[in-house]
Amino acid sequence: MGRVRDLTEPATRQWTRNVPLVLDAIKYRESVFALPFAYAGMVLAADGLPTWGQFLWITVAMVAARTLGMSANRLIDRHIDARNPRTAERHLPAGLLAVPDMALLTAASAAVFIIAAAQLNTLALALAPVAGAYLILYPYTKRFTWASNLALGWALAIAPSGAWIGVTGELSLEPAVLSLAVALWAGSFDIIYHVPDRDFHLRDGLHSVAQRFGVTAAFRLARTMDFAATAALVAVGLLADLAWPYYVGCSAAAVVLVYKHRMVSPSDTSRLGVAFFRTNAYVSTAVFAGTLAAVLL
Q1: Residue 157: domain span
Q2: Residue 115 sits in a domain of what CATH number?
Q3: How many CB atoms lie within 10 A of CB 139?
Q4: Is the pLDDT at 230 greater than 80, yes or no?
């Protein structure tokens, strides 16, 4: 049972007390998944280290964008989360937080995202509302298409291209291919992550790859997408003429992806939490480390 709010408590004190709960609700630690890919796009665009101003505002923009997407997702899906046994204990359905808490965070992160984009360049500012709208709207896709898992992938794929635009004020082929790699990688882990929800999706009329094609086919598609993501990462290195450390990073990421698929299978998803949370951080970090080393050489 969720806690009951003390309506006599000052609003500022309530909000201060709720900050840890809000951060936990949006899983702020998972920013490490996409942020390294944003930094990879940033250093590629700068062909080295960006200015401190670019680094600061790209970081602020990316964290704000992710917070916007997560908080909007929690708001939009709160009723679905309440019906799903796996997510019923999340903060909104459990009553640990109220809708105004998450709505305030959504509005604040959207404002910070736009402000940060404005500090970078005109194109970044012009595209920020488009990116923000996508982050808010993609959670609705699970209501009508199995491609909702792929939609999540493209939400994270905004990061490297957005960072490139933040540095250069334009878009080119290298960040587009890097974004493709991120979309495939993120879509793959989202497919696997939602496999345990298949029965719930079938009962509730929701859509996912596993719900539409079955668990075995979902794992097969996820493996194919991870292979394609690795190929796209290699293509980025060739397009940008990167030095050998980049390929070391890509190789490390590929090894982690293989390990992820050995940890879970259609018949055993008991280690899904470890596979999802740990390996994704390792993949993005390995690619960024390789990119940084390559451009500095």
Answers
A1: 27-296
A2: 1.10.357.140
A3: 21
A4: yes
